[in-house]
Amino acid sequence: MEISVIVPVYNVENYLKICLNSIINQSFDATKYEIILVDDGSTDNSGIICDNYAKKYSNIRVIHKKNGGLSDARNCGIDNANGKYLTFIDSDDAIGKYFLEILYDLVKRYNVDISSVAAISVKKIDMNEFLKTSRTIEEKKLSKKEALAAALIREGIGISAWAYLYDKKLFNNIRYPKGALYEDLLTTPYILDKANKGVAVSDAIQYLYYVRIDSITHRGISEKDLIWFRGMDKLENYLYEKYSNDLKKEFQARYLTDIIGILCNRAVFEKNATKWTNILLKRNKKLWKNYLKNPYIKNRVKAQIFVLKLNKVLYRNIIKRFL
After folding, report:
1. Secondary structure letter of residue 261 according to DSSP
2. Closest CA to 167 of 75, 83, 80
3. I need a surface site. Which of 106, 117, 240, 273 has the fewest CB within 10 A?
């Protein structure tokens, strides 16, 4: 078996069929990949849908387990995978027809540990979206250091677990942290840094990320979100130990872009917004300095930081109007 496609499933009955159909209808030889559906204790019809697909398609396996969260479901898939390579697909997302074909071709042709395709976010997934998926126009091979830099600044690849094909051996000593928020941040950078043979990247748009209103980025903020700081602190120390200051600007760009987009944009709508924004702004103060000179931080983010530090009420009103 060449590829194991791992799909964590939890209460996604309204999205699951679109996801599964996109995985089944691949240009890649169906005898060379398996689909592992990890039903993470769904309480709706998701588990039944998984079983029905498994009865119809011989390359689908279903694992029913008690609810343990996304990380636990992914880890279960890894532990039960037969493929030489792994890829993760969220069960409310979808992939283009050439997803597996392009990823597999890249790892073989460039002899690398990891390959990647482009992803786009969509507010609705239907068959028309598949018309937007594409074949490769440009591709390149990156060293693991270059891949880390690119992921930090979102230059062709990202921190999310999906849109990658990984050599299974990279997970020998790594698993996703069970029960933790921002599990990809706590895992993907370290997987990329194990890719000693490099990472091959294609600009083919083959992953469709569905933005759900009930996703983590659309809810309120709580103490649990502060685990993001632990993840970023750990990553900062790790990068410094391995690469000194070589990735300093890239890390700052990631830190400020994410703290604005993931935390600050939600904190300003809380009743105790002042408390929350003060907590966020006081953490790792050195990274808030000289941000205007960082070429990897987009002007939009720079403007947001400037307004947030100037007037939190004004910032909230602007965010409310445009987000």
Report:
1. I
2. 83
3. 240
Q: pLDDT-derived band of residue 216, with 50, 70 and 90 as boundaries?
A: very low
B/e letters for 202-224, b = 16+ CB within 10 Å, e = fewer, are bbbbbbbbbeeeeeeeeeebeee
Q: Is residue 132 a contact partner of residue 101, using CB atoms and an 8 Å limit? A: no
Confidence at 129, pLDDT banded by 50, 70, 90: low
Residue 194 phi, psi dihedral angles, 5° rounding: -95, -5
Question: CA 73 to CA 89: how far, in whole Å?
Answer: 12
pLDDT at 279: 87
Q: Are 19 and 94 in contact (CB under 8 A)?
A: yes
Instruction: Please report, for the chain, how many H helices and E strands are present, in that order.
Output: 12, 9
Write the single-letter amino acid at 71. Answer: S
The region of weakest confidence among 10-14, 29-33, 121-125 is 121-125
Summarised one tens digit per residue, pLDDT across range 41-70 is: 999 999 999 999 999 999 999 999 999 999
Q: Is 107 within 8 Å of 114 (Cβ atoms)?
A: yes
Distance CA 162, CA 184 (A): 9
Alpha-carbon gap, residue 215 to 238, rounded angstroms: 29
pLDDT at position 215: 47
Nearest 5°: the CA angle 132, 108, 169 is 105
